Here is the input.
Amino acid sequence: MNLPTEVQYLPLYHFQLSRPEKVRWFINADQPDALTLIKSSSLRKFLNKADAVLATQQITWELHPLTEQEYLNWLPYYRQKMSELKFEPLARESWYAEKISQGKIVEGIFFHQLINGVKSMIGSGVFVIEPQKRASFAYKASEHLNLSNEAFSSLGVIIDYIFLKEMLGRRLPQISAGKSGNAFGVFETYGYPVYKLRLGYEPQVAEDSPLVPWAPVNEGGAAMFYALNQNQQLGLYFFHPAGLKLELEHKHYASVNHPFYECEYDLSLLKRSSQECV
Here is the structure.
């Protein structure tokens, strides 16, 4: 089997599917308790004692509206963390002013740890509040810290949990974990949708996302993405070459409203550019 050695493209018209290039992650804001939304029992167990874990590690946090200067002062930390992860830094200097001009409020959550008597920032998140409407997580940057020996015990998951808990307390109609690219295994990991689903989020087609008749595949010839079928139903699809077996637990990828489908395809269908898929 000659697998692709670079990103190629799978035409989706063969399967009567269309792929949004981005999805937005929403949560049921009617629930008063963040823990009840968490799908994973091991994750609930860890987050139930998050306050005690932070106190033991001498970690404190604060959440407040940001001035433009505070946002600009945070950008170098964010860019440093993105560089360490080899991620493209998406936050821009002009982003804050753009959100404020739209009548939105920019807030931040910051985590500090006492290290050798010095208070150092170890984690952060920046989000947008649309008054009486929605809270949307925009950017997150933190140290890679596992705070216990349990599964899902990173500082990053605590940042996400506290954001969710605080926003539920404000009774906003919508809470969003932001938008993501919709090509898992290519631009995001296969575990990315599992993580979001375990936190209780559900995907929707992002409001500004075009629908395209193709999907990028990785060097192994695989592609995972949310797509709309002919009935406009959104599902998570995992395409891989016929004969190639990957061990994925379907139960972790399916949700109540969005089923998971594993599909085989023939490598001869691949194109070298997305333009060839139209």
In short: The radius of gyration is 20 Å. The domain at 30-172 is CATH 3.40.630.30 (Aminopeptidase). The chain has two domains: 1-25+180-278, 30-172.
